[in-house]
Specification:
The chain is an alpha/beta fold. Helix content is 49%, strand content 13%. It has helices at residues 37-65, 68-82, 84-97, 101-117, 122-143, 166-171, 190-198, 209-212, 234-253, 279-287, 299-303, 311-325, 360-366, 368-382, 397-416, 434-438, 440-444, 454-462, 480-495, 513-519, 531-539, 543-554, 559-569; strands spanning 2-3, 5-8, 11-19, 157-161, 177-182, 202-204, 218-222, 227-230, 272-276, 292-297, 329-333, 387-391, 427-431, 449-452, 499-502, 524-526. The strands form 2 sheets. An 8-stranded mixed beta sheet has the order 1-8-7-3-4-5-6-2. Strands 15-14-13-12-11-10-9-16 form an 8-stranded parallel beta sheet. The protein binds phosphoenolpyruvate and magnesium ion (MG). The site of phosphoenolpyruvate has 11 residues, from strand 10 and helix 18.
Amino acid sequence: MLKGIGVSAGVAKGTAFVVSCGYRSAIPQRVIRPSELEGERRRFDSAVARAEAELRALQEGVRDRIGASEADIFGVQKLILEDASLRDRVLRTVEEKRINVEAAISEAFEDYTRGLERAEDAFLKTRAADIHDVGRRLLAALAMEPDCAGPDIPDGAIVVSDELLPSVTARLQLENVRAFVTARGNKFAHSSILARSLGTPAVAGVPSVLAQIKTGDRVIVDGVAGVVFVNPESSIEREYDRLAADLSASKEKLRHLVDLPSVTLDGATLPLLANVNKFSDTEAALLYNADGIGLYRTEFAFAIRSAFPTEDEQFEFFERAAERMHPRKVMFRLVDLGGDKILPYFPLPPSRNPSLAERGIRLLLRHADVLKTQLRVFLRVSALHPASILLPVVVGVEDVRQVRQVVRQVQSELSAAGKQFNPAIPIGAMIEVPSAALMTRTLAKEVDFLSLGTNDLVQYVLAADREDETTAAYYQPLHPAVLRLMQSVLDGAKSAGRELTICGEMAGDPLHTALLLGLGLRELSVAPGQMLEVKDAIRRTRLDDARRLAAAALDLGSAAEVEALLNERRPAPAS
Ligand code: PEP
Ligand code: MG
């Protein structure tokens, strides 16, 4: 039995399939068959040709617009690309290690740059950055190929990996995956959120998993207790068959809530919205009678592609989602990249601390083409459906003002092209960074609504990485510091007269419902799979009791004390 962190509830049994995805890289890595060698060589040569063409165009463009000496940087990068020893090294690694060309490039370039970074000479250090840049360009060129999907996952597999990045997870043949087990990761990592929205059991943070499980092993994954059994005895298998049946029976017990209103014991009706990561979640949201979509994480639609989707492609799938939800509102969040959300075709500079590197709206503002395309899409959708736009990782008012300026620009372009849109489309800010939380009242005046993203807020308030298994114990959504900050966010939103939704994962835990209502939250957005449990908790809550509970929690000194208080006051479960 291997111990880890249960990050997506449910149990599953099946055959292990080990996928090597690499830490913090969206670089596909796999073992290749001898018959694939020639194909990998061809892929390398065409990626080099593509990267060379790009560098040539860059060199010429910069020479014309800026100057010859500035353009030389790209000339140097072209020379690196043409270096025969580099080609030999990459292809030798492919042959000797029997790995795909992306994995070999990553290895070869990392070796090169690591050596140069250690050099005393400043000139050589600069070359390290160029070599890194060339490596990323080659990987981006490979990612543009139409056939760079993930490995073939056999039906009914339990996927075992070091770490699963969202961009990799989203590319797997998810319909074939019965469960996930990873060495790294934590409950609030995006891959865990994705696993929960797929309803796929998952256990993360099992340190020795790659040494203990081989492809073909028989595995049981218990995403509730956070344990994994490798080649278990038949008595354990029988035990788990019984547990799986119990779990589905307890889910069945809540079914009757689908058609009941989301109303407290004292008669307050509270909208219950759904968090959506991919189109099929809208179907689940409808199935559970969601009042709308409080968070549409658009990045997953990008992660399954090999290049940025065009405006028309995006319009097609986002309009379809809004159409399905009509007349309910849909809050589309602008694509939130950075941190652990990396796209293979949009390489970001390496960072020692990706959560603190450029991400969210700031990254988009520097990539105006990506931002403007998406704004055009949502504005066009708003002509037909009640769509709003949510800005990720807002830090302060300047972020919002800059986006508003781009929105105005896009609106006049759409008008000139005779395209319809809602000129007053609501624009909201995610409150998920302490600075934004502390500035809520000021920020609220610049936007039409707010959304509390506790997944990031907790990591930044408590200095505990949401994706790292080693900080899992310190990542405490119930910490009184988090609750006090939430209280001040609520006060700020109220005094500015702005609606505030909570869409962080903590809203999906029924143990937290009374506390959140007591703090003053009136609109919750949760994963579709958690809607019934949360509705059940809302229907068992009296707002006066909830206020007293929140006041008591705010006075406590630790997350453990708050949790004990919530457990003590937990309403009796459904009989
Ligand atoms: C959050 O940070 O709470 C949030 C909802 O956004 P994400 O989980 O996508 O970072
Ligand atoms: Mg976030």
